[in-house]
Specification:
Structural class: alpha/beta
Radius of gyration: 16 Å
CATH architecture: 3-Layer(aba) Sandwich
Largest sheet: 5 strands, parallel
Number of strands: 5
Strand order of the largest sheet: 2-1-3-4-5
Strand content: 15-25%
Shape: globular
CATH superfamily: Response regulator
Number of domains: 1
Order of helices and strands: EHEHEHEHEH
Number of helices: 5
Length: 144
Amino acid sequence: MTGSPSLSDVLVIDDDPPTRCVLRRLLEPAGYWVREAANAAEALTEIAESAPAVALCDVHMPGPSGLWLADQIRVQAPATAILLVTGDADIPPSESLRHGVIAYLVKPLNRQALIRAVDEAARWSFAEREHQLPARPLPLFPVR
């Protein structure tokens, strides 16, 4: 991870441009800065440049799936919270229960549920980043 995530930075990963547009229109008024990627490769490039606080990831995309991408995000940007989004309600929960996956949202999305999930994901990301910071070294001599 080269960039540090902003608390309000959301990367929307979906192969459908109208869906990305709708998600942007829902998230920006709630105070989130939204970036977009159309597939897993674009998402990983975006994340390498600057890891977002939240990755809103479609499960079914051409090429590598969102589940595969969730695993890659975890390696590349461990403090990025992942929200999986799909129109397929039949994916077994065990497939989506990965470290860092905060929620599994089914389309069509409810605005309030989406904002709540992104808010929770941003809080998780903040806590995860705080947890990953190295502890301050103890002084060699007592400080007075």
